[in-house]
Design brief:
alpha/beta; nine-stranded mixed beta sheet; three-stranded mixed beta sheet; 14 helices; globular; binds zinc ion
Length: 404
């Protein structure tokens, strides 16, 4: 568990290693899990020819006994006013939520299954999107906790369960919101000092439950240039679309967040770092239905062992890679519920929620709620299902609340 004085998060770093005295620093220099500019060892050319390697390249990457997200249920949340005030913002947000839905449906999950994070393709759900307004222009990690807690208090984002092995939140920032956190040593899409393209972390909610989240900044051209990536040598580049950068970083952080949510107690190596970091800066594509998305391959320990370190980064696998041992053991129940997930898909995603971080008010788009109900009851009218539909639903809700 990280403390205020010894922060540890998983991030994609944008810049080589900044070390803060007293903070544990991994080989790549990232003391938090983030997406970074490539560190020196990541840029080094791989040796060609010579004797074949005789051992896995990342033997130190192991399960450290902590939680793993066995059934990922993704909540996206879009922070900043431009998501809702411009038509392109709304469609970009819709595309990013679609990406998350496609990611958990895709063969990307077949790589993560070896770590006990899902049972493979289709072993996850996209639950709901929310929009958060009145977010300050520069926020710290503590600000992020506070805004998430407020959103949870007002019902915009659900309270994560105790011993959370399911709920993960992906925060997308618009170009009007930057992150600066001195304690974590992270600056993202700030006017200067940028050193990361994303990170994941966690906190305990007021109710005492672990809340796991990833932060994906705007990653627009200005952000990349301010990070010193205009001339190349970074894990993202100006030749990519903004959406490609965002999905690539999302896949990096998601792979880490589900395998090492309470960084660094899950799958982590002191030298290797997290699974996303080992393959930082690589780019690949996944196709789901009509959609093709840019993702980052992630580390496969199974391949590393099988090839003695010759090949270990992959974005997809044709079938779920069997669970490694030693790994998280007590996931049978979660796996069983993962197998039932297909039953829940007709109910998802839930209607979009709107939250204001300043007034702390949460609202719903009434038309969208109507459309949501329409999906279940069409062509019947709601009062043909129950005499007083609304009152009956309220009674149901009361009964469910009493059961808790
Ligand atoms: Zn990372």
């Amino acid at each position: 568990m990280a403390t205020a004085t010894e922060p540890k998060v998983g991030g994609v770093s944008a810049a080589p290693a900044k070390t803060a005295p007293g903070n544990p620093v991994s080989k790549s220099g990232r003391k938090i899990g983030g997406v970074s500019k490539k560190a020196a060892h990541e840029l080094a050319a791989k040796p060609v020819g010579g004797p074949a390697p005789a051992a896995p390249a990342h033997a130190d990457f192991v399960w450290n006994g902590g939680p793993v997200i066995t059934c990922p249920m993704i909540y996206t949340t879009f922070w900043g006013s431009s998501w809702t005030t411009t038509p392109s913002g709304l469609s970009e947000a819709g595309r990013l939520s679609q990406f998350c839905q496609d990611l958990v449906a895709s063969q990307f999950m077949n790589v993560l299954s070896q770590y006990g994070a899902s049972n493979g393709a289709g072993g996850g759900l996209f639950m709901q999107a929310s929009f958060v307004n009145s977010v300050p222009a520069s926020i710290s990690d503590t600000d992020i906790h506070n805004i998430l807690q407020t959103a949870i208090n007002s019902g915009a984002i659900p309270e994560p369960p105790a011993n959370n092995t399911t709920h993960v939140i992906i925060i997308y920032l618009d170009s009007g919101v930057a992150v600066k956190d001195a304690g974590l040593g992270i600056a993202m899409c700030e006017p200067s000092g940028d050193n990361a393209f994303g990170y994941h972390y966690f906190f305990k909610t007021a109710a005492g439950n672990p809340c796991y989240y990833a932060v994906i900044p705007s990653l627009d051209d200005t952000c990349l240039k301010n990070t010193g990536c205009g001339g190349g040598g970074c894990s993202l580049n100006l030749g990519q679309t903004q959406e490609q950068r965002r999905t690539q970083v999302t896949s990096h952080e998601f792979a880490e967040m589900v395998t090492d949510p309470a960084f660094p107690t899950g799958w982590f190596g002191p030298n290797s770092d997290e699974n996303g970091d080992i393959c930082n800066g690589e780019s690949a594509f996944i196709t789901v239905g009509a959609n093709t998305w840019d993702v980052q391959p992630t580390y496969s320990k199974t391949d590393d062992i099988a090839t003695n370190g010759a090949s270990y980064c992959r974005a997809t696998a044709p079938a779920p890679i069997p669970k490694l041992s030693p790994g998280p053991a007590s996931i049978t129940a979660a796996m069983a519920s993962a197998q039932h997930m297909a039953n829940y898909r007709p109910f998802l995603p839930l209607p979009t929620v709107f939250h204001d971080a300043n007034t702390k008010q949460t609202t719903w788009d009434h038309n969208e709620v109507q459309r949501y109900m329409h999906r279940f009851f069409y062509p019947l009218q709601k009062d043909q299902v129950m005499g007083n539909f609304t009152a009956t639903l309220r009674q149901f809700a009361d009964i469910l609340d009493k059961k808790k």
